[in-house]
Structure formats: structure tokens, C-alpha cells
TrEMBL record:
This is histidine kinase. Its main location: membrane. Residues 174-228 form the HAMP domain. The chain crosses the membrane at residues 154-177.
Length: 454
């Protein structure tokens, strides 16, 4: 039985059956004990009432037959016997069964396949001593028949009560489980429609069911957020793949066209051939830059090892390398005298700083200035400023997307992946990156704020 309603009915019916069985056994035993006590009391009273008659039989030699006594004994199916030692002196009532000598008091014996109850009392007569005994015997057939009848009636009543109880439990469980069926229908509807924005009612039913509905709604909310994140990630991946294909196709197409022209026209003037080769070389360099940027993004998505490092040393090394690459640009570094301890991945931090500096050089004025500052404290900050045109407010979020290019940059150098690498490494290091306007140089100011981890 798989349904909760069926299991609940079966379980409660089993409990009810045990209760009824126990009650029936106790009732039958109580009735049996009461009847046996009544029978024993009747045997004692019969012996007591017959005592005077038995004594008179010894003393006055009364005849054996006494109609009134026989009628009473026959009505109760009881036999009365007076014996002296092993000799029977007087018998009346129903014929007593053959049995061994009975002990004084109450006893039960079986004769001829029938169980009997007997009461034996000695006659207190000084002349006879303890040899004279009065025996009152009755069969237990009627008592056992009444007990069997009582047991059958109790069994029938128990079965009827059990059937009624099972039906009542089944109907009551339907009412009790009605809120659970509503919850099941609601969840089935959500699953069929695949609508994770829906919620099940959590304000009806017993407390346990309301708690279950609330937990289910929390799970739906988490699944909805997860599905939304997955959709955004999928869309971002599709957009990234399309943008990557487009960005890679452009330099490859240009190189292919240049090589095809050189192959078809081997007699071109040397000066023109040199210009075409130089253009192809520039496109090849752009292609390598794109591939390097894609590789940096892929490498940054891994979980690199983290170690304690001096952020000031990383910043100083990055500024020194940029000075060598761009000797015409004036770099200013404002670094603290002491070490700035930070837990991070040195190659990722170096890649982030190199891309910030390259971005400042490419978008600043030719031969302009780039300023780098590092501040120590509870949250270390690295700021990179340039003297270019800056970034408009509406573009300050978009610049961190892969292959994002602003109208002001036009077809300038760069792969469009540098700031995406910056944002990625900032996330991996638990840092935030923001862009605003530089008050000192007038261009863009990129600020990376770290949460110190010692």
C-alpha cells in the first residue's frame, strides 16, 4: 500500500485491532471469573443447605428419595452424594460421574470427556469423625457453552467495531490529508508548467504543513535564482563565443586578404609589398593579443593557489614593466614605505595591474601621464588614473564586459578583453573594482578595493 492515506488507515486499524483484542480478552476473562465465582458460591450454599438433611440421614435414617431436593438439584444439573469412607450412603439429583476420591474444598476434574466442578465438605459429627463427607458436583458444560457464546459475540462485535473504525479512520484521514493533496496538486502544476516563479500556499493547514510549504517555496526561490543565473551564464557564454568569433575573424580575414593579394601579384612594388606585410604583421599581433586575452580569462576561471604576498611589490613591478614598454609615457607611483600584506594569487594580481596600466596608456593622451597609487589600511586600495577623455556614466558598467568597446575608442588598439580580466581577477580576490573620473588628471580613474585577508 503506497498511499499515505492507505498506510495511515492500515496503521490505525492495526492499533484499534490490538486495543479491541485486549479489551475482548479482558472482558472474557472477567466474565469467566465472575461465573466461576458464582458457581462456586452456589456449590457452597447447596452443601450448606444440604448439611442438615445429610446429618438427618445418618441419625434418623431418612429414605433416600426426597422429591423437593431432587427437583432443585435437577434444575441446576447438580448431584449430591453422602459417603462414609469409600461407601456411598446417599445420592440424589443427577447421577454423579465416576471419579477418584476428591479432596476437601473446591476442585475441578474431568470424567467421560466432561469437566466438572466439585465441592467436598466433611460433616462435623463427633460420632462419625472425618469419614462422613458431603459432595456437591456439577458439570461445567453450561458454563463453558456460555463462555464460548460470549467469546463469539465479542469477536463479532470486535470485527464490526474494527470495520467501522477502519471506515472512520479512512474518512477522517481524507479530511486530514486534504491540505497535503492541495499541496501535491500545486507542486504537480508547477512541475508541469516549469514555472519556478509560482509559489504554493503557505498560510493554510496545520503547522507542519505550513512549514513544509514554506520550505518548498524557499527551494523554489533558490531554484529560480539558480535557473536565472544559469540562463544569464548561458547567454553570456553565447555572447562571448559570438564576440570572440567576430573579433578573431576580423584580423584573420585581413591577413588572408593580404597574403592572397601578395600571392596573386608577385610583381607588386617593393614599397607596397612592405606596407602590406607591415599591415599583416599588425593584424597578426592583434590576433595574438586576442588569444592571450582569451587564455587569461580561461586561466583566471580556475581556482589558483593563494599565498601571502606584498601588494606593494606587485604594483611596483607592474609599473616598472609598463615604463619599459612605454618609455614616452610618464608614470607616477605613490606607494607606501612598508609592505602591504595580502593573501592572493600573484600572477592574477599582476595580470590585473598590467591590464589596468595598458588601458590607461591606450586611452590616455599620446605621451601623457599615468598615475598609480596604493593605500594601506583595513581595505587596501589600488587606483590607476589617466589623462584621457574618461568614461561616461552610462558606460562604466559595460566596460568590464568581454570585447566591450566604447565609441570614443573607435578602432584603437586593444582586444577588448583587458578590463574583463581585471573584473575577473577582482572577483577571485574578493575585491571590488569601480571607475569614475580622475580629479588630478581629468581622465578615468579605476579603483580596486581589497578586503584584507591575513
Amino acid at each position: 500500500m503506497r498511499s499515505l492515506r492507505g498506510r495511515l488507515t492500515l496503521g490505525l486499524t492495526a492499533v484499534l485491532a490490538l486495543v479491541l483484542l485486549g479489551a475482548g480478552v479482558l472482558a472474557a476473562r472477567d466474565a469467566d471469573r465472575s461465573e466461576r465465582e458464582a458457581l462456586d458460591d452456589r456449590l457452597r450454599r447447596t452443601a450448606e443447605l444440604s448439611r442438615a438433611t445429610a446429618v438427618a440421614a445418618f441419625e434418623e435414617a431418612l429414605p433416600e428419595g426426597d422429591g423437593r431436593l431432587d427437583a432443585v438439584l435437577d434444575a441446576t444439573r447438580t448431584s449430591l452424594r453422602l459417603s462414609l469412607g469409600d461407601q456411598t450412603l446417599f445420592e440424589t439429583g443427577r447421577r454423579p460421574p465416576s471419579q477418584p476420591r476428591l479432596r476437601s474444598g473446591l476442585s475441578t476434574f474431568e470424567a467421560g470427556g466432561i469437566r466438572h466442578r466439585a465441592y467436598v465438605a466433611p460433616l462435623p459429627d463427633a460420632g462419625l469423625g472425618a469419614l462422613a463427607r458431603l459432595e456437591v458436583i456439577t458439570p461445567l458444560t453450561l458454563l463453558e457453552e456460555r463462555q464460548d457464546t460470549l467469546r463469539r459475540r465479542l469477536a463479532i462485535l470486535g470485527l464490526v467495531a474494527l470495520a467501522l473504525g477502519a471506515a472512520g479512520v479512512y474518512l477522517a484521514s481524507g479530511v486530514v490529508l486534504r491540505p497535503l493533496r492541495r499541496l501535491r496538486r500545486a507542486t504537480a502544476s508547477i512541475a508541469a508548467e516549469e514555472d519556478l516563479s509560482r509559489r504554493v500556499p503557505a498560510d493554510r493547514g496545520p503547522t507542519e504543513l505550513r512549514d513544509l510549504a514554506a520550505s518548498f517555496n524557499e527551494m523554489l526561490a533558490r531554484l529560480s535564482r539558480s535557473a536565472a543565473d544559469r540562463e544569464r551564464a548561458l547567454e553570456a557564454t553565447k555572447r562571448f563565443a559570438a564576440d570572440a568569433g567576430h573579433e578573431l575573424r576580423t584580423p584573420l580575414t585581413s591577413i588572408q586578404a593580404t597574403l592572397s593579394a601578395l600571392s596573386r601579384h608577385p610583381d607588386l612594388p617593393a614599397e607596397r609589398r612592405a606596407r602590406m606585410a607591415t599591415g599583416a604583421l599588425e593584424e597578426q599581433r592583434r590576433l595574438v593579443g586576442l588569444l592571450d586575452g582569451l587564455q587569461a580569462l580561461a586561466r583566471g576561471d580556475a581556482s589558483p593557489p593563494v599565498a601571502e604576498l606584498d601588494l606593494a611589490e606587485v604594483v611596483d613591478a607592474s609599473v616598472g614593466a609598463s615604463r619599459e614598454r612605454h618609455p614616452d609615457v610618464v608614470f607616477t607611483a605613490d606607494l607606501p614605505d612598508g609592505a602591504v600584506a595580502l593573501a592572493g594569487w600573484e600572477p592574477g594580481l599582476r595580470s590585473m595591474l598590467d591590464n589596468l596600466l595598458e588601458n590607461a596608456v591606450h586611452h590616455g593622451r599620446p605621451g601623457g601621464a599615468v598615475r598609480v597609487s596604493l593605500s594601506d589600511g583595513p581595505s587596501p586600495e589600488v587606483a590607476v588614473e589617466d589623462d584621457g577623455p574618461g568614461i561616461a556614466d552610462e558606460d562604466r558598467e559595460r566596460v568590464f564586459e568581454p570585447f566591450a568597446r566604447l565609441e570614443a575608442s573607435g578602432d584603437g588598439p586593444g582586444s577588448g578583453l583587458g578590463l574583463a580580466v581585471v573584473a575577473q581577477q577582482a572577483r577571485h580576490h574578493g575585491a571590488s573594482v569601480a571607475v569614475d573620473r580622475s580629479e588630478a588628471l581629468g581622465g578615468a580613474r579605476f579603483t580596486v578595493r581589497f578586503a584584507r585577508s591575513a
